[in-house]
Fold:
Amino acid sequence: MTTEYVPRLFERDAEIRMIGEGLLACALPREAWTHEAHLGACLWLLAERSDIDIDVEIGPVIRRFNASVGGVNDDHNGYHDSITRAYVAGVRLFLAQTVETGLAARANALLLSPMGRRDWPLRFYSRELLFSVPARLGFVEPDLAPLP
Structure:
């Protein structure tokens, strides 16, 4: 029997801002850098930090954070460029479509939406391509469907 993944939802806007600020300051505990935190931070960056060019800075921000908590960014671990960029596209799509206005409400709706699913990038990429070294190290165009 397989059980469907149920995301941990956010209780307050401040929780998401703390994750985003902790990511930027490399002050977030490693164990707090969950799937939900990744998406919450991405949503916060896009919705509230227009001073940050996410398309240019997301890779360096996450790589720097990973290194700060003892992680390694290499061919098999750490930052994954194509997955990150697929989620950035998904969060942008979600923000363009949502009617939610509060940060936590938007983040929770995102986590419960198709764009928030852990397997969402596999709508665009074959597993083989998505989990390849080139796709981890740099953005690779999807092979199944274009990103939104």
Notes: DSSP finds seven helices and no strands in the chain. The CA atoms of residues 76 and 133 lie 7 Å apart. The chain has one domain: 13-137. The mean pLDDT is 96.
